[in-house]
Specification:
- By secondary structure, the chain is of the alpha+beta class.
- It is built from 17 helices and 15 strands.
- The protein folds into two domains: about 140 residues, no CATH class; about 350 residues, Aminopeptidase.
- A seven-stranded mixed sheet has the order 11-4-1-2-3-12-15, with helices on both faces. Strands 5-10 form a two-stranded antiparallel ribbon. A two-stranded antiparallel sheet has the order 6-9.
- A hairpin with a 2-residue loop joins β7 and β8.
- α2 packs antiparallel against α6, α2 runs parallel beside α7 and α5 packs antiparallel against α15.
Length: about 500
């Protein structure tokens, strides 16, 4: 009798369960496999066709419309659409996996097996959703980062035409500043000041560097009642040492100098105005980089490879050519892969040479970082990079300019000429940082822009007057006419960086 009962029992469908789980796993890779196996061919092939269209469409967008996609992913509206689409795809994919299991699940499973198999399918669905959730979160971080960095106080800039953003802007001029300080920007000295002037049609770019120790220079007309004899400290309120790198501080500490702007914007706008007056150019926007946070960006990128011409000290203090405090280390000559801390010292060190060599190194460092930005590293370290950028970069660039700037940057990286104009007394006849000839600075800037716009037809060099006396400059070196090596025109950045 016992044997008869055993013979009458229904066998546990182990083989059928493993087959169902296998088909469910296959359906997680190729939609519709389980449905076709279950005889629901119409539904199964429809699911396969939908998946094929999704894959082909995504590949087409990535490969054929890269430039367009790059412009879309810096716009909040499209980022919201992308986030919603990613999450919808995740839910759809998980639902199809669960549906596939229900179609092929064998009947009559004992309760324990039914619970175990259902749990496995749910876990599989969660695993499938994980990369989509990560992608959606990364997109959200990108949107949040862009919103924080590019709020834009652009009411002083030219009016932007969305259909033709460069209509009223044949050249895009942006002041790039590097300074120390925390997020509240108190106490910042802008030791790095470069104007990037970009032709919005060709992408040809001129990088114009101004020395931090520029002194007694002519101020814009509206400020000459305060500084009638050139920029210098009038009192403890209006500045520190009277050099160009303290103009930012003067603006931040004195709202009356830059009316209409709030704390954190005044210094940058004042420096825009002052530098624009010196080189005879309207500066449209500014970007301020906190150099202490800059190292976090480099680290998030996995470091940067640079060519170092000679050994540079890390840390230490030098007075009159002698170390009063020895360096804590050295950057050795040759091609080196630098982490964030060492890259910062490569751009800041000046004890081994002077401010003017440092200006060249800073341009080369910017070029190296731009050239070596690896998309894979950017994606894998995106959250660290986004956090570092949010705490490091401050700008008044409006978010509406980001899409055309992305397009323009592709032109610049695609082979456009990048030239460098550095106001260096050793290489520029008639230029003295202690008492700069503003007319000469404007002439050389105009010439460099003209040469950039017509690279095959260089304009004639402006007439320069060489001063016959020697002046002691702030770096401890002596400017001399014999040190000049040319008229001071712009040169290719490739030549500057060797």
């Amino acid at each position: 009798m016992a044997g008869g009962q055993a013979a009458g029992r229904r066998p546990i469908p182990i083989v059928g369960l493993w087959r169902a789980l296998g088909l469910t796993l296959a359906s997680a890779v190729v939609w519709g496999v389980a449905h076709v196996a279950a005889g629901r061919r119409a539904v199964g092939f429809t699911l396969m066709a939908v998946l094929a269209l999704l894959v082909a469409g995504s590949a087409t967008l990535v490969l054929a419309f890269q430039d367009t996609m790059k412009q879309l992913v810096v716009q909040n509206t499209w980022l919201n659409v992308i986030i919603a689409a990613i999450l919808a795809l995740a839910v759809t994919w998980a639902a199809i996996v669960i549906w596939s299991y229900q179609v092929v699940r064998p009947p009559g499973l004992p309760a324990a097996m039914r619970v175990a198999s259902t749990t496995l399918v749910v876990v599989l669905s969660v695993l499938i959703c994980t990369p989509f959730v990560y992608a959606a979160n990364t997109t959200y971080v990108l949107r949040d980062t862009l919103s924080k960095i590019f709020p834009g106080d652009d009411h002083t800039g030219p009016k932007i035409d969305a259909a033709d953003p460069w209509k009223n802007m044949p050249r895009f001029n942006v002041l790039l500043m590097g300074g120390d300080g925390g997020k509240d920007r108190k106490g910042i000295r802008t030791d790095s000041m470069t104007v990037a002037s970009i032709d919005t049609k060709t992408g040809n770019t001129v990088l114009i560097s101004l020395p931090r120790n520029l002194q007694y220079f002519q101020m814009p007309a509206r400020l000459r009642s305060i500084w009638p004899n050139g920029y210098r400290p009038v009192n403890a309120t209006l500045g520190y040492d009277g050099m160009l790198n303290s103009v930012y501080l003067s603006g931040e500490k004195n709202p009356s100098l830059v009316p209409g702007f709030k704390q954190g914007q005044r210094g940058s706008h004042l420096l825009e105005e002052v530098i624009g007056n010196l080189i005879g150019m309207k500066i449209n926007y500014y970007v301020l980089v906190n150099l202490d946070g800059f190292k976090d960006i480099v680290n998030a990128m996995g470091g940067v490879k640079v060519h170092i011409e000679k050994a540079l000290p890390i840390g230490g203090e030098m007075v009159n050519g002698h170390y009063t405090k020895p360096p804590t280390g050295w950057l050795h000559a040759g091609t080196q892969h630098l982490n964030g801390e060492k890259a910062l010292w490569y751009g800041r060190s000046r004890d081994a040479d002077d401010d003017f060599h440092r200006m060249d190194r800073q341009k080369c460092l910017m070029k190296d970082i731009a050239d070596q930005a690896d998309p894979q590293k950017v994606v894998t370290h995106f959250e660290k990079l986004a956090k570092a950028a949010t705490n490091t970069i401050y700008t008044n660039l409006p978010s509406t300019l980001l899409p055309p700037l992305i397009k323009l940057s592709g032109t610049v990286k695609g082979g456009s000429d990048i030239t460098s104009l550095a106001f260096n007394p050793w290489k520029m006849q008639g230029f003295d940082p202690v008492s700069p000839n503003v007319a000469l600075m404007r002439q050389l800037t105009t010439k460099s822009i003209a040469d950039s716009e017509n690279p095959h037809k260089p304009s004639p060099s402006p007439t320069t007057t060489v001063k016959k006396h020697k002046k002691k400059v702030k770096t401890g070196v002596t400017a001399s006419p014999t040190a000049s090596s040319g008229s001071g025109g712009s040169v290719s950045l490739k030549n500057v960086c060797g």
